[in-house]
Design a protein that fits this description.
332 residues, alpha/beta, Nucleotidyltransferase, domain 5, 2 domains, five-stranded mixed beta sheet, 9 helices, 12 strands, globular, binds adenosine-5'-triphosphate, binds fe (ii) ion
Amino acid sequence: TTVLGIEGTAWNLSAAIVDEDDVIAEVTETYRPATGGIHPREAAQHHAMYASNVIERLLNEFRENGHHPKDIDAIAFSQGPGLGACLRTVATSARALAMSLDVPMVGVNHCIAHIEIGRWKTPATDPVVLYVSGGNSQVLAHRAGKYRIFGETLDIGIGNALDKFARGAGLSHPGGPKVEAYAKESTGYVKMPYVVKGMDFSFSGLSTAAKDALSKHSLEDVCYSFQENAFAMLVEVTERALAHTGKNEVLLAGGVGANMRLREMLDVMCDDRGARFYVPERKFMGDNGAMIAYTGLLMFKSGTTTPIDQSHVDPSFRPDTVDVTWITDKHE
Ligand code: ATP
Ligand code: FE2
């Protein structure tokens, strides 16, 4: 089975073709804002401008690798969550492509795609997933036919919290990697809010407190303390999800997963609990077309396709509303 997938929920327009074994072709065009954060309208214009070019280059690469477009069985696309204008651009391209190749569409939940590429590209089989990116922060695990959300942010994603703080500190976008670099040079901890409510966490107050702390403390110490608190909150909830579900694997997903301090803290926690900790290769952690194509392949093979009249996008598409038809639950 061969599936072409298109991702474009935010800043990355990326298309890929995969089969069961590997990524056959992939082409990405990244929108980089001149100033500040992502401007949704500009990102959508970027995607619209590059969509046909990206698909053309992808199909050329596919042909060069000895395949033919008629080998493609389905067109997968990121249906949400994400920026509405960006999602609509991607869905429009997917519809046009599905019609011209005369194959079905598969609407993919972006969060689930982050999980499935991790299960594909690491040995993880049934993990507790910590999904941390710009717009999203969730702890998920498979149970009874759904990816259940065990905990999530009550306000903004951890990546956006880091980016917003960094912008306020005069650092350029994306802020996450810069905060990580400054944190390494820190010499002391500054007290910061730690907000876990039940199984959920909140980052907006921490981001603001960090910005205020800059008037009294060094950037290095504030970056360090921000990270320590935010990551401890994420690790606490991940650990409780492990205990609650009885699972013994943790999978890290999303762009913030590039952070070495977060990985270290998760690694220590997993070690303590006798759980295995998995991190996919960097290129599969941030938004990428391969994760949409591969999840589309799993869905397609288990009989799920998306008729055109149900292919509307959903900017707040919740992963726990999707029937996980491609996993048979041993415990049922
Ligand atoms: P989503 O649509 O899933 O929310 P996204 O558009 O935010 O994804 P990702 O590539 O998953 O895209 O994540 C980007 C985020 O990752 C940015 O907020 C960026 O600051 C953050 N990030 C990247 N590298 C690091 C790092 N080393 N440490 C902390 N944060 C990082
Ligand atoms: Fe993402």
